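Input/output pair, single chain:
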Amino acid sequence: MATIVPTERQGPHAARAGGEHAIAVALLSPCFWPEVRRGSERFIRELASDLLARGHRPRLVTSHPGRPRRTVEDGLAITRHWRPPTAPLERRRFELYLTHAPFSYLSLRAGSDDIAQALFVSDAQAAARWSAVTGRPSIYSYMGIPDRAGLIDRRLRLRLTRRAVRGCTAVTVLSQTAAEAFWRSLGVEARVIHPGVDVGAFRPAAERSQAPMLFFGGDLAEPRKRVDLLVGAFARVRRERPDARLVLSRPRDRAAAARFATRHPEIELRDVDDRDALARAYSEAWLSVLPSIGEAFGLVLAEAMACGTPVVASSNGGMREVADRDEVGRLFDGDSPEALATAILEALELLQDPGTPGACRARAQEFSLERCTERHLELYRELLST
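Output:
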């Protein structure tokens, strides 16, 4: 439940956590629920919730198109600044979400945070400047893979990224793959902290579908998710498994959902914005399939495995670090529907082994939220002690 809170400022040491002073952490991101629901937003929510449970003091500084608003949502204090229109800049291929950054910086200056942690390059500018002025540490948590093509895809992205990594005290990434790309592209050593999965919330929550069900929990409108590749592979899978089903997360854009449903009546769309609904979908599925390229980690894969469901993913990017053994799924190379279909058909046989759900859940527990939070706390303590 959201409640309005009257003030921006919070004391950094107002509570104790496990015998130590509570750490006040300002998390910065350009968007948050309900406007946008991606892996980054889940990362923020899960990390903040576990920090709160341990007695620490996270808050979120974000933006939206509406009036400035301050709320407390499930214990997390959230400041939503007005985001001036971005479309004119985006049409000219400038970096995304630049217009709210000055407000984020002012919000940091108005607060009493111990650490600022930014999850997007524009917010990292605010965090770096705050560090320079206050002497307090900041973290740039890079949520993707900084390959050369991506860094020059939009105007100012490379310059802003370089400024962010120079100005922030530390840089974190989600996988070793991303860390290696940081070194190759920018000559920067980044610390790997895998995102956390709430294995209490994501657990077997429904009976397995009687017919082979494939589930895709990503954004079907995002080109790098390669939904068209999955659709093509599904047609080939059905030649051998005519009873197979493909279920996709329904887009929030109703028009986009209607267009997709018209083009592909054989594919089911399901509302999974609610975490319980998402856990049920993972649990019913025989496979969670993510054909994306350029994923730094692939959080939906770990969430599916926490529900006892094996996965299929591209070997491109950090997903190979998640699905790193045959007991939990299959990887495929390239961009052909045939290669993906072959991986799916092989992986469908995994559930013939009664040990597969347990192996999947055991792998997901290696990415537990508790481990993720502890790694962040180790970094916070290290930075605050120097």
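Confidence is low (pLDDT under 50) at residues 1-15. The domain at 213-365 is CATH 3.40.50.2000 (Rossmann fold).
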